[in-house]
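Same chain as my last thread, 592 residues:
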Amino acid sequence: MSASTHVMLSPTEVTRSSLPAQVPATYLARNLEAFTRCSGLLVIVMGTVAIGGSLLGIPLLRSLLPGHVTMKANTAICLVLLGIAFLIVDSKQPISALGRRLAAVLALIVATLGIVSLGECLYGWDFGIDQLLFPESAREAIGSVRPGLMSPITAADFVLLAIALILLDGGPRRFCISQALAFVSALVVAFGVFDFVLSSDPGHTHIALPTSCALFLLSCAVGCSRKDRGLAALLASPGLGGSVIRGLLPVSLLVPAFIGYMRWRGSQQGLYSEWFGAALMSVSAIALLAGMSAWTGFVIERTDRERRVAETELRAQAALINLAHDAIVVRDLESRVVLWSRGAEDTYGWSAGEAKGRIIHDLLKTEFPVDLKVIETVVQESGSWEGELTHRKRNGERIVVTSRWSLQRDEAGRPKAMLEINRDITDRKRAEQAVQAERQRFRDVLDRLPTYVCLLTPDYHASFANRVFRERFGEGQPGQRCFELLFSRSEPCEVCETYKVLKTGLPLQWKWTGPDGRHYDVFDFPFKDTDGASLILEMGLDVTDRENAEKLCSRAKKHSECWRTLCHKWCGYAPRTDSTCTSINAGWSTPG
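reply #2:
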């Protein structure tokens, strides 16, 4: 059979090549996908609710908390547009060119509004866009920079998220920039979230609670929108990195917020001095970092211990593989050798180091029984293929191998590598060819015999019939049984002398009159085929002419006897059968 893996199985190489690639676990990836989709929808809903609050004149729909900053009309519109753009680029289905252009246009509109609003906040400009759709009075603009104007944090976040969406599906560098912008956006809007966590004063950041929540969700969703790379791939990974970040991320987000809240509240209510508050923050930070470091150390140690156990098992498996005489090879999807067993070295003559990285079909000059694409199609559909291939060894010798290919897939069901196991059957093929040649010579001899010869199977088929048999009884149709060919019967003969041989295991001689009307002396012998199957060797000698001659001789002998008797009676002598006298009359023999 055939094999594919890599160089001689050293423990290090086995560890690298045999351990599965760290791919996102299915359920984790599904959870992340549900989070991003729900976040996009929730952002659209929050923006739509705020627009409804502006239309209906209900400030509570725009602030969620009475007496706090309300979401501006421009902010609500930008959230809806940005949410739609995100849902387009986050679609599970392939995105059309029109869809990409639409998402880019929506993101550019949001980025433009964000840049203009940020300029208004920083430089006091007024382009008249803040009160264009839904005018806001000074009484309603609680904690705002100016009536109708979004906060600087909101404007900056819109610019960051819009650019992040545009760069999301670019090359590796653009994707990294997109991830960084989403991270910065989450950090910026975190100030708005802490405005509500730490204080009841709505004027610190001039941002509404629903706005800060929507932007934080959207920042996280953009950062996790590509499950096969970036932060999302790390979060969904079943490996050490995924385990560590899933354990540390919630703690790093919630614990500092709780410590900050306690520090701020205690200081505001006079529960402790400024020194104690600073000491509390320092000790809490030390405890947090020390605890996270210890937990990380324990996780790494446990993972390292499991890795060492896995390496030990892999070494044992590698040793077993190297004991196999078959050539075992592992190759990647481009047919480059990844693992090359000791059996492969012995079979082909190339060392593991020489074979590693080479395209196996070029290295072995493989001759396929059918087109390679046909074989690859079968492997893709069924997961395996088995057949005979012709390879060339390092010294140029051609060998025939039975080859079995098995496709390895990752946890997501994607093709990953090909295991190929090859067994050298060159000597067996030569022996089979020699046996076939001997069998052909034997059949040629049987064809020259003047008797008919056939080999009969237990199910009444003739596996071989020589020339005399075919000329006298016909060629027969494939699968036709002896009683159908000779006697046109639908069932075996009631009494068949031939098949008694299979029951007794002894040779048998009997007489038979064939369908051609001629008489045969039949000789049946038990016979074993080369594969051990039981057969009957039957030889039939045509004795029709001999029997006819014997009858003529018998008839002639009777006529001769009659003639002799007549001669003796009337002539006094009896002629011999060879035309000489056989007896002399006594009178003739008497003197005188």
